[in-house]
Amino acid sequence: MTGSTAPLDPRGHTRITDRAMTRLVAAVSAEALGVRPGQVSVDMAEAGGRLDLTVRVPSRALPVEHGHTDAPDDTVPDPTERAQHDIRGTVTALTGAEIAGVTVRLTGSRIRLPGRSD
Question: What is the full per-residue pLDDT of the chain (118 aa) written as tens digits?
Fold first, then answer.
């Protein structure tokens, strides 16, 4: 028997409910930003057949004087930019959804000093 060279046709599609997608985006966002999933709020909107995600999360900040970097402020990577990239890539990989954009909004600030617990 010889193998077929005809391409395989996709068989149907998988539908992910809005609630499942929201929870998945919250979990991915929480991991990317270092917070608990319950601290993340997600809004989704359609933008030309693609998803536009808005993620709201409390920020966590470490005062500059306690930081471990000697780099000028303009060269320090923004954790929200890195998270946006990670969220887009992971959500696309897990769901196959096309993401138009990811916006991360920081809703508050918790300053953690070294050696102190919450």
Answer: 455 555 666 667 778 899 999 999 999 999 998 888 898 999 999 988 899 999 998 776 434 343 444 555 555 557 788 999 999 999 999 999 999 999 999 887 666 667 766 5
Domain annotation for the chain: domains and CATH numbers:
18-69+80-110 (3.30.300)
What are the φ and ψ backbone dihedral angles of 2, each rounded to 5 degrees? Answer: -100, 150
Residue in the block written with tokens 């320090």: 76
pTM of the model: 0.69
